[in-house]
């Protein structure tokens, strides 16, 4: 995937971040092929012919890992403002509709480019392909990441219910003509989706260490029980991850209680979906029992504080999750609701959201917990535990070089605190992924940004025109969804627990 297996690189005189110790001592890193072979004090011996990278005046940290994003979101960045999650889902046919295979590839590439330029080297990506994910479609997205030189795990989103079927009572408040609008959105039968995913898992041709696959029943109550069981079995059969948006909005949490008489997490547990391979996206409305259940299963939460605030979903309690043994990764969510792909910003928000929840400092995450989450925690969610997320011999050589002469680092008092609270991606100078320099002196070595911008503008114009009717449908539906769902969200959560199952 990356460099020739025998290529040897010695990175000299950088300051190597030890996030837990809040230190960054000078050191050299020897990289052989795509892997860190040795780390030692400056002057580390290197074989003759090794390529030298001068990292004087730079802080080196493991590549950040985005635990939750959506490839299709990148062509839709900035299209909305005052959107709840349910309004965003209502807008989906407008902002994501009529995409060609080239559009989907382009959208993935835009996101990958943004992420690597901002120090992120791997992502858990849940793309949308309508009406059903195809082997060719997912592989084309995988090639977008491979072209950029970034790593990804792709979990195409699937469902067998529309939003209007998933939320009890919503269909009833629609007018007959609105019901006609949403009738056209009916997803394909779940067996067709499972067959499509199985074909992808079976025939995957890309290097799985660079771009792998996982399974994503998108939102639990948007999927029938049989479908979720089928997804869970498929993930187990192929030894891949399972990822779902669980308790992202209060509406979801309440609908879970209404439909199943228990929380969405308890429902997934009863279907056999939980395990170390399982990732909850968001988990804003998890209760402590849910967190314990996830922790006991060794499962992960992808915490996306920027998106959670942007969509009015609230503030996930990362500290409570960590205390209950949940593996926490940090994500941006898709650019259609975040609206960037900046994991530095996501780390900063994770810290600030935790602190903003209460004045009790014991309930706050520390900056080192945040860095560990955005590196090792996300790596574990992606299935790369022990391979990504640390600067250690035997780990893959995914390394970000920050310029310590950038104002973010003048002066450098505490590297861990500043990585979380000060750095915004502005100091990213080089990015190495698997031993290969993908960003050098702030420029991509793999992709022509001007050509990408031209292609994106052409796609934007075409999609704007072809999706005008879908936008009109959104505008017809938005008042009803915008009225009904916040009303549901005003039900006190604890009261909803007692009427659950009715
Ligand atoms: Zn998402």
Describe, in plain words, how this protein is organized in 3D.
There is one protein chain. This protein has 502 residues and is an alpha/beta fold. The chain is built from 18 helices and 19 strands. The chain has helices at 85-96, 101-117, 135-148, 163-166, 176-183, 190-203, 225-238, 250-260, 264-270, 288-296, 305-310, 318-323, 343-357, 367-381, 415-421, 449-466, 468-489, 493-499, and strands at residues 8-18, 23-32, 35-40, 51-54, 58-62, 64-69, 120-125, 151-154, 157-158, 211-213, 216-217, 242-246, 278-282, 300-303, 327-330, 399-403, 428-433, 436-440, 443-444. Strands 1, 2, 3, 4, 5, 16, 17, 18 and 19 form a 9-stranded mixed sheet that branches. It has a 4-stranded parallel sheet with strand order 6-7-8-10, with helices on both faces. A 4-stranded parallel sheet has the order 12-13-14-15. The chain is globular. The mean pLDDT is 95. Zinc ion (ZN) binds next to loops. The site of zinc ion has 7 residues, from loops.
């Amino acid at each position: 995937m990356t460099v020739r297996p025998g290529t040897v690189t010695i990175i000299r005189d950088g300051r190597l971040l030890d996030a837990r110790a809040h230190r960054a001592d000078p050191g050299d890193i020897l990289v052989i092929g795509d892997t860190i072979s040795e780390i030692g004090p400056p002057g580390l011996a290197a074989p003759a012919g090794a390529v030298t990278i001068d990292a004087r005046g730079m802080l080196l940290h493991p590549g950040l890992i985005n635990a939750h994003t959506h490839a299709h979101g990148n062509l839709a960045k900035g299209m909305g403002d005052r959107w709840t999650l349910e309004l965003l889902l209502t807008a989906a046919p407008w902002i994501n509709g009529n995409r060609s295979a080239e559009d989907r590839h382009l959208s993935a590439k835009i996101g990958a480019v943004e992420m690597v330029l901002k120090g992120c080297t791997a992502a858990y990506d849940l793309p949308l392909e309508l009406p059903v994910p195809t082997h060719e479609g997912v592989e084309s997205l995988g090639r977008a990441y491979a072209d950029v030189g970034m790593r990804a795990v792709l979990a195409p989103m699937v469902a067998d219910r529309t939003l209007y079927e998933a939320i009890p009572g919503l269909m009833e408040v629609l007018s007959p003509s609105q019901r006609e609008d949403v009738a056209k959105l009916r997803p394909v039968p779940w067996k067709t989706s499972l067959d499509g995913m199985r074909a992808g898992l079976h025939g995957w041709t890309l290097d799985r260490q660079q771009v792998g696959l996982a399974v994503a029943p998108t939102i639990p109550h948007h999927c029938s029980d049989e479908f979720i069981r089928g997804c869970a079995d498929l993930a187990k059969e192929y030894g891949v991850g399972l990822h779902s948006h669980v308790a992202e909005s209060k509406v979801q949490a309440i609908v879970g209680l209404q439909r199943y008489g228990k929380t969405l997490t308890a429902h997934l547990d009863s279907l056999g979906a939980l395990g170390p391979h399982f990732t909850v996206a968001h988990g804003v409305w998890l209760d402590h029992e849910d967190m314990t259940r996830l922790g006991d299963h060794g499962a992960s939460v992808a915490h996306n504080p920027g998106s959670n605030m942007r969509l009015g979903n609230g503030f996930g309690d990362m500290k409570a999750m960590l205390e209950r043994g949940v593996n926490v990764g940090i994500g941006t969510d898709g650019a259609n609701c975040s609206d960037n792909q900046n994991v530095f910003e996501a780390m900063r928000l994770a810290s600030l959201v935790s602190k903003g929840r209460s004045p009790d400092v014991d309930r706050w995450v520390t900056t080192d917990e945040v860095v560990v989450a955005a590196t090792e925690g996300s790596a574990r969610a992606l299935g790369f535990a022990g391979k990504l997320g640390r600067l250690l011999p035997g780990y893959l050589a995914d390394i970000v070089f920050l310029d310590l002469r950038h104002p973010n680092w003048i002066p450098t008092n505490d590297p861990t605190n500043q990585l979380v609270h000060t750095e915004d991606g502005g100091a990213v100078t080089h990015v190495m992924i698997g031993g290969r320099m993908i960003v050098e002196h702030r420029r991509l070595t793999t992709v022509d940004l001007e050509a990408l911008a031209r292609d994106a503008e052409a796609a934007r114009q075409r999609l704007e025109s072809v999706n005008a009717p879908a936008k009109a449908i959104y505008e017809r539906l938005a008042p009803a969804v915008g009225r009904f769902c916040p009303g549901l969200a005003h039900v006190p959560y604890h009261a909803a627990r007692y009427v659950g199952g009715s």
